[in-house]
Amino acid sequence: MWEQISSNRTRSIVLVIIMGLLLLLLGYFLGIAFFDSGILGLILAIVVWIIMNLIAYFQGDNILLGMAKARKIEKEDYPRLYNIVEEMKLASGLEHMPTIYIIDDPASNAFATGRDPKQASVAVTTGLLQVLNRDELQGVIGHELSHVKNRDVLLMAMCSILLGTIVIIAYYASRFLIFGGVGNRRRSSSGGGSAQLIILIIGLVFMILAPIAAQFIYFAISRKREYLADASSALYTRYPEGLASALEKIASSTNQLKSANNATAPMYIINPFRKQGLRASDLTSTHPPISERIRILRSMAGGASYKDYNQAYQQIHKGSNVMPPSALGLTEPVPLRSAQTGTAQAGGAYESGRRERAREINDLLWKKDNYIMLDCSCGTRLKIPPEFKNAIVRCPHCGKVHQV
Amino acid sequence: MKCPACHHSMIVIEYDKIELDYCTECSGIWFDAGEIELLLDTTNLDVINQSLQSPEARTAEKERRCPTCGKKMEKRKLGESSPVLLDVCPNGGGLWFDSGEINQFVQQLPEKDSGAISNRILSFIQNVVKPANQ
Amino acid sequence: MDIGIVIIVIVIAVVLILIFAFVGIYNGLVKLRNQVKNAWAQIDVQLKRRFDLIPNLVETVKGYMKHERDTLEAVTRARTSVQTVANAGVGERSKAEGELGMALGRLFAVAEQYPDLKANQNFLALQEELTSTENKISFARQYYNDSVLTYNNKTQMFPSNIIAMMTGFKAGEFFEVTVPAEKEAPKVSFS
Question: Which sequence spans correspond to the domains of chain C?
Answer without folding.
Answer: 52-172
